[in-house]
């Protein structure tokens, strides 16, 4: 939220039919002087689903920064668990630029329900969407979208994109397997049915890791490395196992590896034997017990110009930089500056990116095979 933006004020719950009237009232109360007509800033509808009140509070703190980059009509859904059933209630907030220049506003409608009333949230959303704008659904619940069932189907009926985050999934192997199977069903085939895209924020977090690893393994940079890999080790902090899983799957998809078998030691290590064009190699994902909840290090044992070495890529300086070092070789380290990876920044950038990523789809197909090998 910028310094010249008015923060939303607390408001009482209102009937659904009074939402537009309350939006207009709040905008009028923020106006002062002779600024002319109000201009609504909306690039899309952004529907956000949270499955508990505490999560909604975290998401709420990110919304002002998101709409600062990607103005939208925000519809925040809060489905509270519990045996008691309550109907859908609404709260309305507006963000308005009150400094010099036009009076520009964005709005948020928060819908809450409990128990059986949660099923009615999707019906309330339909009446609030602005019809000539694209619709993005942010599935903020910490469970795979493949578990969303009929609720998610109804919620995304008119959506062009669903954004989810595989960070912290409670059962990574089953979550990856189920989501990989769900992706082609949700997106469908090009030219058949509505255009829909599914995007994982974890995949966006891997952008700089993938870029540096691709450069490190380029034959013109490290001759012979690709054809001599014997082991890949990926280390991650707590809750970041799916992030590591997606990176391993990307490597396998790009380099033509096939899974021969795997084993899992929950919370400690996942290991696979993989066949590459040059022979068998070992792939491991290890969990560090503490530290930042993110990817920490990738070590690829190989040979460069016939000399044994290992490519070491690791996160440094609080995750703001990646460094590449070749073990045992007199080669200068290479570093890459990493852009901010805060939740609001990731979501804001993804909202305008509604193109399908074939590399992501290919990587998830391989990730499904990795998952099935440890679930047998």
Oligomer: single chain
What is the molecular shape? Answer: elongated
Mean pLDDT: 90
Tally the helices: what do you get? Answer: 10
* Total number of strands: 17
Distance between the termini: 48 Å
> What is the helix/strand order?
EHEEHEEEHEHEHEHHEHEEEEEEEHH
Task: Supply Rg.
Answer: 23 Å
Supply the helix-strand structural class.
Answer: alpha/beta
User: Would you identify the regions where 5 or more consecutive residues have pLDDT less than 50?
Assistant: 1-10
Major β-sheet, in short? 9 strands, mixed
**Proportion of residues in extended strands:** 25-35%
The amount of helix comes to: 25-40%
Account of the 3D structure:
- The protein has 376 residues and is an alpha/beta fold.
- Helices cover 31% and strands 32% of the residues.
- The strands form two sheets. Strands 1, 2, 3, 4, 5, 6, 7, 8 and 9 form a nine-stranded mixed sheet that branches.
- β12 and β13 form a beta hairpin.
- α2 crosses α9, α5 (172-187) crosses α10 (358-375) and α8 (241-255) packs across α10 (358-375).
- The model is unreliable at 1-10 (pLDDT under 50).
What's the topology here?
Blueprint: E1 5-6, H1 19-30, E2 38-40, E3 44-50, H2 53-69, E4 72-80, E5 86-97, E6 103-114, H3 121-126, E7 135-139, H4 149-155, E8 161-164, H5 172-187, E9 197-200, H6 201-205, H7 207-216, E10 231-236, H8 241-255, E11 258-265, E12 269-276, E13 279-287, E14 295-304, E15 307-316, E16 321-326, E17 334-337, H9 343-351, H10 358-375
Parallel strand pairs: 2-6, 3-4, 3-7, 4-6, 7-8, 8-9, 10-13
Antiparallel strand pairs: 1-5, 5-6, 10-14, 11-12, 12-13, 14-15, 15-16, 16-17
Helix pairs in contact: 2-9, 5-10, 8-10
């Amino acid at each position: 939220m910028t310094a010249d933006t008015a923060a939303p004020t607390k408001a009482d719950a209102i009937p659904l039919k009074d939402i537009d009237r309350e939006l207009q009232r709040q905008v009028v109360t923020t106006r002062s002087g002779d600024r002319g007509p109000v201009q609504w800033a909306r690039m899309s509808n952004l529907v956000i689903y949270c499955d508990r009140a505490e999560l909604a509070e975290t998401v709420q703190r990110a919304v002002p920064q998101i709409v600062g980059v990607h103005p939208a009509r925000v519809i925040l859904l809060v489905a509270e668990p519990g045996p008691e059933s309550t109907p859908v209630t609404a709260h309305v907030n507006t963000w308005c630029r009150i400094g010099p220049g036009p009076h520009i506003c964005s709005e948020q409608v928060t819908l809450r329900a409990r128990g059986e009333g949660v099923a009615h949230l999707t019906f309330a959303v339909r009446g609030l969407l602005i019809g000539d704008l694209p619709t993005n659904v942010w599935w903020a619940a910490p469970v795979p979208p493949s578990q969303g069932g009929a609720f998610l189907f109804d919620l995304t009926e008119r959506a062009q994109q669903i954004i989810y985050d595989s960070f912290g999934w409670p059962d990574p192997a089953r979550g990856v397997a189920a989501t990989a199977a769900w992706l082609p069903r949700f997106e469908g085939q090009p030219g058949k049915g509505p255009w829909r895209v599914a995007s994982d924020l974890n995949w966006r977090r891997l952008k700089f890791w993938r870029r540096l690893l691709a450069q490190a393994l380029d034959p013109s940079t490290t001759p012979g490395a690709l054809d001599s890999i014997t082991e890949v080790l990926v280390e991650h902090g707590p809750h970041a196992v799916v992030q590591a899983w997606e990176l391993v799957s990307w490597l396998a998809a790009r380099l033509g590896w096939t899974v021969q078998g795997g084993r899992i030691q929950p919370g400690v290590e996942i290991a696979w034997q993989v066949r590459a064009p040059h022979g068998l190699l070992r792939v491991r994902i290890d969990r560090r017990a503490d530290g930042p909840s993110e990817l920490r290090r990738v070590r690829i044992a190989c040979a460069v110009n016939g000399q044994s070495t290992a490519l070491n890529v690791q996160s440094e300086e609080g995750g703001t930089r990646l460094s590449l070092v070749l073990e045992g070789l007199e080669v200068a380290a290479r570093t890459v500056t990493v852009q901010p990876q805060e939740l609001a920044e990731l979501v804001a950038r993804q909202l305008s990116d509604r193109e399908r990523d074939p590399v992501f789809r290919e990587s998830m197909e391989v990730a499904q095979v990795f998952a099935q090998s440890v679930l047998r």
